[in-house]
Amino acid sequence: MLLKKILPQTLINTLFILFSLSCIIPLIAIISISFSNETEIMKNGYKLLPQSFDLNAYAYILYKPLQILNAFKVSLFISVFGTFISVLIMAGIAYPLAREDYKWKNKLSFYVFFTMLFNGGLVPTYILISNYLHLKNTIWVLILPYLAAPWFILILRSFMQKIPHSIIESCMIDGASEFRTFFQIVIPLAKPGLATVGLFTLLTYWNDWWLSLLYIEKESLVPLQFMLYRMMNNIQFLTSSSNQLPPGMVNAVLPSESARMAMAILAAGPMLLVFPFFQKHFVRGLTVGAVKG
C-alpha cells in the first residue's frame, strides 16, 4: 500500500521537475549566449555555459547609456500609468455588465463583444490618430490604443458576476453611492481578476513596439522595445552588408546572436522581477471559479 502511494507522487514530482527544467534551461542558455563571444557562437553553436566570457554585446547595446535610460523611462511610464488607467477603465465598464439590475447589460455586452471581431483597420486608425486626434509624436499615442481590451473586460465581468448581489444591495440600503460601492466593495473583492488582467495589460504595454514604429519620430519618446528593435535591424543590416563597411571594420565580427540574447535579457528582465509580486493573485485569478463545491 505504501508503494502504491509513493509511486504516483514520485512520478508527479518527476514530471514537474522536468517541466520546470524545460522552462529554466532556455533562460540559462539566453543569459549564457549574451555573455559569449560571437566568434565562439559561430564555431560551436549555443552552449549552456559561455566558453569565453565576452561583454561586447552589452557594450554595443549600452554604447549610449543615456539614450537607453531615457527609453527605459518612457517604457516604464507608459507601462505603469497605462496599466493603472486601463485596468480602472475596464473595471468600470465590466461592473455594470455584471450587475443584474442594469437594463442595458445585454446591448453593451454585445457592443464589447462586437469590437473583438471587427476593428477600423490600420489606415483609418492611422488617419484618425494622426490627422484628427493629433496624437502623433505624443506620449499618449502609446497609451490610449490599449486602454480598453474587450477580452479583458469580459474576464473582469465574469469575476464581478461572482460577487453576491446581496452585498451590493446592502451597501445601497446603507446609503453608499455607486462610486463608493465600486471602489470600496467591488474592487477589493475582484482583486484576483484585476491582478490577472493588470499583469497581461502590463506585458502588452511593456512589449509594444508597433505603436512607436507608426507614430513616434521624436527620439525622446522612443520606448525601450522599439529602440532594441532598431538596434537589431542595424546589426543585421551591417552584417549582411559587410562589404560596405569602412576598411578598418571589414574583418570585425558584430555581436549578432549575443546581442539578440542580451536584448532579450534587457527587455524581459524587469518583467521577471515584477511577476513574483503578481503571482499569488495571478494564480488565484486563473483558478477561481474553476471548481465549485
UniProtKB/TrEMBL annotation:
Gene3D superfamilies: MetI-like. The chain crosses the membrane at residues 12-35, 74-98, 110-133, 139-160, 181-206, 259-278. Belongs to the binding-protein-dependent transport system permease family. One of its GO terms (biological process) is transmembrane transport. The keyword Metal-binding does not apply. Its main location: membrane. This is Carbohydrate ABC transporter permease. It is a multi-pass membrane protein. Residues 72-278 form the ABC transmembrane type-1 domain. Keywords: Cell membrane, Membrane, Transmembrane, Transmembrane helix, Transport. It is found in: Cell membrane. PROSITE patterns: ABC_TM1, PROKAR_LIPOPROTEIN. It comes from Paenibacillus psychroresistens. One of its GO terms (cellular component) is plasma membrane. PANTHER family: ABC TRANSPORTER PERMEASE PROTEIN MG189-RELATED-RELATED, POLYGALACTURONAN_RHAMNOGALACTURONAN TRANSPORT SYSTEM PERMEASE PROTEIN YTCP. InterPro entries: MetI-like, MetI-like_sf.
